[in-house]
Amino acid sequence: MSLALGAHVGAHMNAHTAYTVLDLIGTFAFAISGAVAARQRRLDLFGIVVVTFMVACGGGIVRDVCIGAIPPAGLSNWAYLAVSLLAAALTIAAYPQVRRLRHPVLFFDAIGLGLFAVAGAQKTWIWTNSAETAIVLGMVSAVGGGVLRDILLSRVPAILEREIYASAALLGASVQMGLTYFDWSSFWTPWVATAACVALRLAALYYGWRLPVFQTRDLVKKPPRKAAADEASQDAH
Amino acid sequence: MSLALGAHVGAHMNAHTAYTVLDLIGTFAFAISGAVAARQRRLDLFGIVVVTFMVACGGGIVRDVCIGAIPPAGLSNWAYLAVSLLAAALTIAAYPQVRRLRHPVLFFDAIGLGLFAVAGAQKTWIWTNSAETAIVLGMVSAVGGGVLRDILLSRVPAILEREIYASAALLGASVQMGLTYFDWSSFWTPWVATAACVALRLAALYYGWRLPVFQTRDLVKKPPRKAAADEASQDAH
Amino acid sequence: MSLALGAHVGAHMNAHTAYTVLDLIGTFAFAISGAVAARQRRLDLFGIVVVTFMVACGGGIVRDVCIGAIPPAGLSNWAYLAVSLLAAALTIAAYPQVRRLRHPVLFFDAIGLGLFAVAGAQKTWIWTNSAETAIVLGMVSAVGGGVLRDILLSRVPAILEREIYASAALLGASVQMGLTYFDWSSFWTPWVATAACVALRLAALYYGWRLPVFQTRDLVKKPPRKAAADEASQDAH
């Protein structure tokens, strides 16, 4: 990459100090959710740290690899690792308290989702100048960590069968790119896009909105694994 | 990447319009197989779209990341996304009809397999000039999407335990690279290589050919739980 | 990448012929462990070869993609593929003998772990000049193959819930980077770092050391299925 583009990216990033703080809050909320899931699966100390880090940084690492931002920020910026370690330590030391945090965690997770989707879309746009790539990778930045967590824990990724989650990230990345692409972008663009994502996610949580699942006749005849998955998704609410 | 190489790649790609059409047919066949699998697992609307897109484009994205073709064509070329969305919409709207397509789907899937293996090998060769990398990544282009689908659906990838599928892709990529490497390549090279892959795959389907599975005494004697524990204590890490 | 850096990397690598030999021994030990696991899962011939190759080379490929060393050495250097094929062939042809190798395999695996962690950290340092990235990717080089094996075989990666394994790789990569970063590096640096990793791993095996697992009251009280459902409803996404 040319130095000029490097400087441009650098300037763009430094302009948003408040943004960086919110990014770290989002990372922290994601990391807490990873640490809780890892501890519930009874992984050992190291396993908890790895899963925590993957949830917090995995989506961004996949995005950076796909756009050629080498080495990925999640690996080269010590702040992400530090936040992950902090979240893992907190979850281990104060598990009952963290468990009781369900609502705050869901709230910050929704904010993290919006911030990651918008920041991921923006970074991809700067590096590739492709709006489609920016929307797809903005969503991947936001939900990739959770997908990697579920792959590591050997279960079907939750975002594929439950709730309006990735769709909210898709909305946030699309609003950001729509405004940017048609040159309506301003100081408020990322905040509007983030707010759209967060609002959709919180409304879906509050009202229990879900995307349709399509019943198929051949499934009625199928094995018990299906029933277990169904049971799990029913118990969830 | 230098502009000269970019132009070379561009010229090479533009020369094959018929090729592009067949590539999209292959993508469509792959996408249909992904959408059917996702719908059978009762994923929601979004989950179906994601799995469909991964099956259609996942292998190519992994290849492009490995050869440095950034951003991957599967993300930056809207045609692949459009074909995936079309396949997902068709599978949702006309599921009984699509289900009845088993034989046409297997036929187009075999053609997609051959085209992806050969095109993947050729693209890798142009970017890396390494015949071994081209053969391995040609195969990965063809089967990677199916492997990612099975990882997302939390099952052992079908290609690792069933049928002559990846081996047919390996044959196609190897024929392409063999002819190219020893400078016997001509206008017909990709078609011969694709035909070799498709013929082997269809013959294996028709005659039920399979690769050998090696029986092990210790697996026959033990119940699954016990075998798993033994396996855990046996393997090195 | 500039030619000068390329030459530097080349010179650095060529200097260590003994190192290359030990690297291939480590690759071979990793490959044997992959082939044994694949055969126990009754994968077919092709599945065994793929899993063997992934265990031997997967970690290095992930590292090379993350640092931009394109195409990854595991794909472009035929020696790694040849060693993997040899290990797969041996495991298929002489399975009872290989099964009886438990202790030698664990021993060579520990040596491979140390060599991969240190070499991975060193390569990452040369390419990125970031000590944190080098430590993380050094560990990834060493354990990534095993994690990919477990993901392909649809089980929770062993390193997340068992034994001191990844932690030993972390120690090796950290010692290497600590000495390099503070300019205490010498001819002996990689050997000291490798020895630290191997010694910790072998001692942990011999004395049965493990990392702590944190018991949680809610898991003890619930049957597994119920706990999983609770987990699904608890974590954020």
From TrEMBL, chains A, B, C:
Instruction: Write down the InterPro entries for this protein, in alphabetical order.
Output: Gly_transporter
Localization terms from the record: Cell membrane
**Pfam families assigned to the protein according to its UniProt record, in alphabetical order:** Gly_transporter (PF03458)
Q: Per the record's keyword annotation, is Secreted included, yes or no?
A: no
Which Gene Ontology cellular component annotation is one that this UniProt entry carries?
plasma membrane
Q: How does it sit in the membrane?
A: Multi-pass membrane protein
The residues that cross the membrane are 18-38, 45-71, 77-95, 107-127, 188-209
Query: Which UniProt key words apply to this protein?
Result: Cell membrane, Membrane, Transmembrane, Transmembrane helix
Give every Glycine transporter domain span. Answer: 21-95, 107-178
User: Superkingdom, according to UniProt?
Assistant: Bacteria
Record-stated family: Belongs to the UPF0126 family.
Q: Which PANTHER family match?
A: INNER MEMBRANE PROTEIN (PTHR30506), UPF0126 INNER MEMBRANE PROTEIN YADS-RELATED (PTHR30506:SF3)
Q: What is this protein called?
A: Membrane protein YeiH
Which organism's genome codes for this protein? Paraburkholderia tropica
